[in-house]
From TrEMBL:
Protein name: tRNA 5-methylaminomethyl-2-thiouridine synthase TusC
A Pfam family annotated for this UniProt entry: DsrE
Family note: Belongs to the DsrF/TusC family.
Coiled coil: none
NCBIfam families the UniProt entry points to: PRK00211.1 (NF001238), sulf_tusC_dsrF (TIGR03010)
Source organism: uncultured Thiotrichaceae bacterium
Database matches in InterPro entries: DsrEFH-like, Sulphur_relay_DsrE/F-like, Sulphur_relay_TusC/DsrF
Length: 133
């Protein structure tokens, strides 16, 4: 039985290496067919926000890579509702990240699930390994 790995993303997508490093580690874990989930808390919610434009800071944007994670069976994205609200964001401000459900005739389904702070604590407690970025 494979272990459940949760990658907790708390940092804004640019300005530090944390977000990109997390995404790279997630891709590696997914390549080894681990049971991978992602949590977006605090400024981490900005990592999957729509309309990221990195031209002004001279960095290559990597947010589109989140859309590819479904191809690696990474389709559990938990976003803390309170973190969104504290930043004036809603679910509509997030990228529409989906995966194709092979058990449902390859229907596209949303990967992002908005959860309360209490629900996030429950999800985190159910993991075997939690890595925070």
């Amino acid at each position: 039985m494979s272990k459940k790995f949760m990658y907790v993303n708390r940092k804004a997508p640019y300005g530090t290496v944390y977000a990109l490093e997390s995404l790279e580690v997630v891709l590696i874990a997914a390549a080894f067919e681990q049971d991978v989930s992602l949590a977006f808390i605090d400024d981490g919610v900005y990592q999957i926000a729509k309309g990221q434009d990195t031209k002004g800071i001279g960095m290559k944007g990597f947010s589109a890579t989140y859309n590819a994670l479904g191809d690696y069976d990474v389709n559990k994205f938990y976003v803390e509702r309170e973190s969104l609200e504290e930043r004036g964001l809603t679910e509509d401000d997030l990228m529409p990240i989906v995966y194709e459900d092979e058990d449902d005739d390859w229907a596209e389904k949303p990967s992002v699930k908005i959860v309360s702070r209490a629900e996030m604590a429950q999800v985190l407690s159910e993991q075997d390994v939690t890595l925070s970025f």
